[in-house]
């Protein structure tokens, strides 16, 4: 019973945790459908984010998203794999792993285009 109530509260706790973070413009990279691999142009965006992050002092939050099609568990895992891939690229380009926090957001609806939900947002504080 307790487990269920904690699970149900997780989205609220996550939203509260994100609300307490210092605001920073997100750097966004997009993925192809059903993929956790970035194309070369998106990799260049992550490399530029890593350069920016190495000159900042705060945490680097990597939020992973997936589209609403398919099962929720699959899309949550996909959003985590996307965030992990970006975190690995940031670390490979000089960002200390202990500064990187991965936040899989799972499936989210899109408003205008399906690619909106196939993304990772990089937020650099400080």
Morphology call: elongated
Runs in which pLDDT lies below 50 for 5 or more consecutive residues are 1-22
* Rounded Rg: 15 Å
Task: Label the CATH architecture.
Answer: 2-Layer Sandwich
Which structural class matches the secondary elements?
A: alpha+beta
What spatial order of strands do you see in the largest sheet? 1-4-2-3
Rounded to the nearest angstrom, the distance between the terminal CA atoms is: 40 Å
Average residue pLDDT: 83
- Structurally, the number of domains stands at 1
- What level of helicity do the residues show? 40-55%
- How many helices does DSSP assign? 3
Text of the CATH class = Alpha Beta
Major sheet attributes: 4 strands, mixed
Provide the β-strand percentage band: 15-25%
């Amino acid at each position: 019973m307790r487990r269920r109530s904690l699970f149900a509260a997780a989205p609220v706790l996550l939203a509260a945790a994100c609300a307490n973070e210092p605001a920073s413009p997100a750097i966004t990279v997009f993925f192809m459908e059903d993929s956790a691999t970035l194309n070369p142009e998106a990799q260049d965006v992550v490399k530029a984010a890593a350069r920016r992050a190495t000159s900042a002092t705060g945490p680097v939050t990597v939020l992973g998203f997936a589209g609403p099609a398919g099962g929720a568990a699959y899309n949550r895992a996909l959003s985590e794999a996307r965030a992990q891939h970006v975190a690995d690229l940031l670390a490979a380009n000089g960002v200390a792993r202990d500064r990187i926090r991965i936040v899989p957001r799972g499936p989210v609806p899109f408003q205008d285009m399906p690619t909106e939900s196939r993304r990772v947002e990089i937020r650099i504080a400080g």
